[in-house]
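note to self: dont lose this again. the chain is below, predicted strucutre after it. 105 aa total, dont forget to put it in the shared folder this time
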Amino acid sequence: MTSSQTWRRLGWLFIYAAAMGLFEAICVIYLRRLLASPGAQAAALEVFDRTRIEAIREACTLAMILAVAWISGNNLRSRSASFFFIFGVWDVLYYAGLKWLADWP
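---
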């Protein structure tokens, strides 16, 4: 793979990870407000249910990152590098999005 192809691939991975990080921050804001609002049907969920929902959300996030990393690489090394690149960008923008959009944490 040429250098320009590598940078192009990293650019697309960055766009995906950035969009995913901000999108997930927005989803978390909605979920927390929905689950915390009095009178909402979802507010009746027990702590166990909320924990399970969060665990499923996190598992889905990791599955999406893994899937995109897998299809973007040619071998285990490039797929692993893609996974960690996406995870890093996603993680930073997820928490930056939470801070920017909801001033949390």
